[in-house]
Amino acid sequence: MSDAIFDQLLNSQQLVIAMLRIAADDPSARVGAWDLRDIAAHLAATERDCYVPRIRSIAAGENPTFDFFTNDGSDFSGIHLDDALDEWTATRLMLIGYVKTLGGEQRALTGHHERYGEVTVDRYLEIALEHDQDHLRGLERLAGELTR
Which label site among 37, 38, 59, 110 has the fewest CB atoms less than 10 Å from its CB? Predict the structure, then answer.
């Protein structure tokens, strides 16, 4: 896979963060059941608790098996929006830096995901990008509602 995924991950993250910050002034802003702080904390926790350990496990040659990750039931009430966004940014940069150190053979190692089947390091990066884009679509809908 091309290293363009790194730029795509950084760009999508920047878009999500910009959308969250734009809507942050409206205390009623929600996407589904989540307020903006919950979304930011969810993204930071998913990067930290799912993508990083799973990608490391695949790259280590452990051939791991993964179930569907969710932190939907987590209580993010003690987390501040800016802190969550800072954590997500730092963790994403660390993850990209780590993957850049891997050789092609390590990036091609696999694990098995119950939903996505066989996954490589690069496929897991694509899953992270898809997750970003899913949240971005929700934030774009919210922005449309707030401008009406």
Answer: 110
